[in-house]
Amino acid sequence: MTEKIIIAGFGGQGVLSLGQFLAYAAMYENKETTWLPSYGPEMRGGTANCSLVISDAPVASPVIETPDCLIALNKPSLDKFIDNVKTDGIVIVNSSIIKEKVERTDVKTVYLDANDIAMKAGSTKTANVVVLGAYVALSKIFPKEAVKGTIEKIFKKKPNVIPMNLEAFELGYNAV
User: Fold this and answer.
1) What domain range includes position 120?
2) What pLDDT, in 10s, does the model give residues 34-55?
3) Which one of 13, 85, 106, 151 has the lowest number of neighbouring Cβ atoms within 10 Å?
4) Which H helix or E strand runs over 115?
């Protein structure tokens, strides 16, 4: 099993953190993984994306030409990467921000109102964790409980945000 994922959006949307959640979950599940961030010079509002490879075998390169999954958190990211997604791949679209529909019919497209769902968990800052939940549900790459454990480990120094992030994960997981 090898899964290649591109996560893309604006800086400040939690793009890189979402990739890190998956990379840490991969390590905790004894998988091989690479995480390759890319971002502009702007701290917030600039472009950001990361490439993530998760595999049962050693990963030869972190560079992804044809992702199995694209997680697009804004329209410019969707436009930039949609043509590269493999046939029968998954495209998760943050429909809170992207109103257009994906024209490709050879991919499975999921429209996720991540920002509104995140508000149900208590903050739009958890929209990336909502998307994490949706991706885990769709891909079945990791057991749900393993990812929830990863969230708890990542936020162990901020225990007050753990319940909100776990709720955001559950809401995203159940949304698809």
Assistant:
1) 2-175
2) 999 998 766 566 789 999 999 9
3) 106
4) helix 114-121
Residue carrying structure tokens 């995203």: 172
- Whole-angstrom distance, CA of residue 173 vs CA of residue 166: 10
**Cβ(175)–Cβ(134) below 8 Å:** yes
Residue 36 phi, psi dihedral angles, 5° rounding: -120, 105
C-alpha triplet 131, 17, 168: angle, nearest 5°: 35
Run of H or E including 93:
strand 90-94
**Of 47, 89, 84, nearest to 65 (Cα)?**
84
| CATH number, domain with residue 141 | 3.40.920.10
Q: Give me the amino acid identity at 102.
A: V
Convert the pLDDT of each residue in 99-126 to its tens digit.
999 999 999 999 999 999 999 999 999 9
Count: domains in the chain: 1
> Please, is 11 exposed, middle or buried when counting C-beta atoms within 10 Å of its C-beta (0-12, 13-18, 19+)?
middle
φ, ψ at 35 (rounded to 5°):
-135, 120
Contact residues for 73 (Cβ-Cβ < 8 A; gap 6+): 7, 8, 9, 10, 13, 15, 94, 97, 114, 127, 128, 131
